[in-house]
Design goal:
Blueprint lengths: L19 E5 L4 H12 L3 E5 L3 H10 L4 E3 L9 H12 L5 E4 L14 H29 L2 E6 L12 H21 L4 E8 L5 H14 L3 H9 L10 H13 L7 E4 L7
Parallel strand pairs: 1-2, 1-4, 2-3, 4-5, 5-6, 6-7
Length: 266
């Protein structure tokens, strides 16, 4: 049965299958941290992202079996193909952590169509496809965990990232709808909503601030740190703990868990 989860019966015939997790965006940062934590808790972890080299580094850091499945979540066929491969190797995933995403910025008056479409495709449509593909087997098994790594931008408007903010608001709505639909099935759906995390993605945001404003990298990073009331960036481990909470707590569903140092209260 799932480690530390009292909601699953020990005699359940799908106990082994339930220790299979899929993590998207698993090549680095939050995705890598989540994959390592799940593996330490006894899960076989399927890893997907665009970079095979980064995925293999993540796999090497995992405590148990890891399946490396390079894929681009912008490809409409990718979620299905990845889950097909997991089912062939281990059976259906019981945990999905949809973490793949990116944030691109532009003033609204110059926000191009292709940027808008890419932001919605990767940050909203790709998680939807992953949820759609994995949820039915979880329902059939009577146990499952759907977790989307969203953002504090799912809770409030952020300047210059209209597409990203719209997508993250949308993915929180997706999670809430799925949670309501599946509430009596043993399957939960939640979003984790971090502020700026000390990852390569935030390094990219720093670089954008430097390019657009002429500030130093140190000043740009300080701007982001000061957006959190705690005065620092969130750590990967702090986000990983929130994801793990969503896995082990069967009474929490339909939530957007803030991991933002108090930036959004509610």
């Amino acid at each position: 049965m799932p480690p530390s989860d009292s909601t699953a019966a020990p005699t359940d015939p799908v106990a082994d299958v339930r220790r299979v997790a899929l993590v998207t965006g698993a090549g680095r940062g939050i995705g890598r941290g989540v994959a390592v934590r799940l593996s330490q808790q006894g899960y076989r972890v399927a890893l997907t992202a665009r970079s095979e080299d980064e995925l293999r580094t993540t796999a090497d850091a995992c405590a148990g079996e890891a399946l490396v499945l390079p894929a681009d979540m912008l490809d409409p066929a990718a979620p299905g193909a990845v889950v097909d491969a997991i089912e062939a190797a281990w059976g259906a995933p019981s945990v999905l952590v949809a973490n793949a995403g990116e944030g691109l910025s532009s003033p609204i008056g110059r926000y191009p169509d292709d940027m808008w479409e890419r932001q919605l495709a990767l940050n909203l449509t790709a998680p939807f496809r992953c949820v759609r593909r994995t949820a039915p087997a979880m329902v059939d098994a009577g146990w499952g965990r759907l977790v989307v790594v969203a953002s504090m931008a799912a809770k409030r408007g952020e300047p210059y990232i209209a597409g990203y903010t719209a997508a993250k608001h949308g993915v929180l709505g997706l999670v809430r709808s799925v949670a309501a639909e599946l509430a009596r099935t043993g399957v939960t759906a939640n979003a984790v909503c971090p502020a700026y995390v000390d990852t390569a993605m935030t390094d990219g945001t720093v670089a954008t601030i430097v390019a657009q404003t002429g500030r130093s990298p140190e000043d740009a990073r300080t701007i982001l740190e000061r957006k959190q009331p705690i005065g620092r960036l969130v750590t990967v481990d702090e986000v990983v703990e929130a994801v793990w909470f969503c896995v082990v707590n069967g009474a929490v569903t339909g939530q957007g868990l803030n991991v933002d140092g108090g930036a959004v209260q509610g």
